[in-house]
Amino acid sequence: MRNDHIWSVQTLSLNEVLDFGSDTSLEIVAPYNWKVVQELPPKFLHANLKLLYFGIGIFNFITITMLLTIAYFFVNSRRQREKYVNELETKNALLYKKRNQLDKNNKQISNINSRLTIRNKQLSEFNYLVSHNLKAPVTSMSLIVSMINKEQDPQKKIHELLPKLSQIAESITELTKDIGEYVSIIDDRKVKVEEVDILILINEVKEEFSKTLLDSHDFEISLNLLAWQQVHFSRFYLQSILHNLISNAIEYRRDGVSSYIHFETFFESDKKVLVIKDNGMGINLDRHGKNVFKLYKRFHRNISGKGISLFLVKSQLEALDATIAIESKENIGTTFKIYF
Question: For residue 138, what is the enclosing H or E element?
């Protein structure tokens, strides 16, 4: 290429038939070698290149346009996908939060249903306490009043029946106390719940039996509170529970045996467990298992008692969502497990 001209040179073999693109072929027979020089002038070159440049330009324009279009749709699609993913993550987080709230609500409803079941049971026990146990003294008093009204000398009859009336009045008074104590358990809205130190509370309850424990050298209170020592509960209820269980262990101990009551703490799953174990008379659970925590149920006729302590223990525990289990054998002892 020189001065915008393109020159091409081709050596010709004269022993061949040459075809220059015309309709007829030229056969060279002279014994010489020829060189054919061909010139492409700038005008012709520019005209052809202009068409080529125009085609390349159009091709590049179309290509760039297509690439920009594809890039736009790709970026837009990516943005839409990112937006969709973000919205999906937000909705998933919201669903997870709502599921947790739903689980929490279901748990609360389950707890409420459980408490309602316990409350219905407590109300049933209260109904029994009032109707059944109040019926006997009221009936007896009505009979005495009827007998007095039928007597010609009522003063003499009153004097004869006065001890019986006093006994009935004392019975009604005791029943009223039991009703009052049970009502205070049912109405647990007034109960103060706090962190209670078991060790301190047991030592305080021990002082209530100090004279009994001093007079009885064969009864021991032992402790193993290494697992835990504090529990979120009603101090008043727990003090009453410990008092009743220690009182029962002292009252129902066996003769000729060094008696004890042992307190121990441990964890079971996510619950705190307080174990109270004694080696007293024990209870035949095959016979009395269903009635252990029922009202006015007694299992040792030779020992005086009202049969209300274990009923109150269970009621006080259930009032604050705690439970109690019992294992017992006659002449071996009893173990209570309280789950907080």
Answer: helix 42-150
Q: Which of 25-29, 100-104, 109-113, 189-193 tops mean pLDDT?
A: 100-104
Query: Which H or E run includes 275?
Result: strand 271-278
Distance of CA 265 to the CA centre of its chain: 22
Residue tagged 């060189």 (tokens)? 35
pLDDT, tens only, 97-134: 998 888 888 888 887 777 677 667 766 666 665 665 66
Choose among 42, 35, 34: nearest CA to 1.
42
Could you give the 3-state DSSP secondary structure of residue 332? Answer: coil
Residues 6+ apart with CB under 8 A from 324: 293, 313, 314, 317, 336, 337, 338, 339
Q: How many whole angstroms separate alpha carbon 175 and alpha carbon 169?
A: 10
Question: What letters, b where the CB count within 10 A reaches 16 and e where it falls short, cover 280-302?
Answer: bbbbebeeeeebbbebeeebeee
Alpha-carbon distances of 180 from 131, 183, 199, 307, rounded to whole Å: 15, 5, 29, 16
pTM assigned to the model: 0.55
Return the SS3 of 89.
helix
Q: Average of pLDDT values for 20-42?
A: 68
Q: Are 241 and 260 in contact (CB under 8 A)?
A: no
Spatial distance between the Cα atoms of 98 and 31, rounded to a whole number of angstroms:
103
Distance CA 184, CA 89 (A): 51
Q: Edge to edge, what strands does the sheet with 333-339 contain?
A: 219-224, 259-268, 271-278, 333-339, 323-329
What is the per-residue pLDDT across 42-81, written as a single tens digit (0 to 9) for each?
777 777 778 888 888 899 999 999 999 999 999 988 899 8
* H or E segment to which residue 196 belongs: strand 193-197
Identify the architecture of domain 192-339 in CATH. 2-Layer Sandwich (3.30)
3-state SS, residue 303? coil
Contacting residues for 258 by C-beta, under 8 A, at least 6 apart: 218, 219, 220
| CA pair distance 327, 334, nearest whole angstrom | 6
